[in-house]
Amino acid sequence: MPVVRNADQLPLPRLAEETKRLAQRARDNQVALDDLRGGTFTVTSLGPQGVDFFTPIINPPQVAILGIGRLFAKLVLEQDRPIELQATYLNLSFDHQVVDGAPAARFLQSVTVP
């Protein structure tokens, strides 16, 4: 899994560009060993393969991995009227030796739209 360096400091468009660049290097078998070192958190998706929910496995020494399922339509009520929204399942696996459940839950709440 190639590592995006300083991801927390990149604007979203730049983060997307870097992710695409590294993914292409991986597909082309041009990833250097240094590209694979130093990761702390992984984001993975099986959504494009039609998977709703799965349990991602942490890649030590990383501390967590977020799995993203496919987008699907969901009906919700807004002011007593049904509206269709896009939804997905998020699955967070984390190392309890490093992260407690409460901060992990707050992280999931922060990336979830009500």
What gap, in angstroms, lies between the N and C termini?
31 Å
Question: What pattern of helices and strands is seen along the backbone?
Answer: HEEEEEH
Helix content: 10-25%
Shape, per Cα inertia axes = globular
Structural class: alpha+beta
The average pLDDT is 91
How many distinct helices? 2
Give the spatial strand order of the biggest sheet: 1-2-5
Estimated radius of gyration: 16 Å
Which sheet architecture does the biggest sheet show?
3 strands, mixed
Provide the β-strand percentage band.
25-35%
Which regions are unreliable across 5 or more consecutive residues at pLDDT < 50? none
Instruction: Write down the domain tally.
Output: 2
Number of strands: 5
Short précis:
The protein is α+β, with helices and mostly antiparallel strands. It has 2 domains: 39 residues, no CATH class; 74 residues, no CATH class.
Task: List the defining traits of the structure above.
114 residues, three-stranded mixed sheet, two-stranded antiparallel sheet, alpha+beta, globular
Folded structure, characterized:
With 114 residues, the protein is α+β, with helices and mostly antiparallel strands. It folds into 2 domains: 1-39, no CATH class; 41-114, no CATH class. It contains 2 helices and 5 strands; from the N terminus they run αβββββα. It has helices at residues 12-27, 101-110; strands at 41-45, 64-68, 72-78, 81-87, 90-94. Strands 1-2-5 form a 3-stranded mixed sheet, covered by helices on one side. The protein has a two-stranded antiparallel ribbon with strand order 3-4. A hairpin with a 2-residue loop joins strand 3 and strand 4 (81-87). It is globular and about 55 Å long. It starts with 11 loop residues before the first helix and ends with a helix. 2% of the residues are buried. The model has no long low-confidence stretch (mean pLDDT 91).
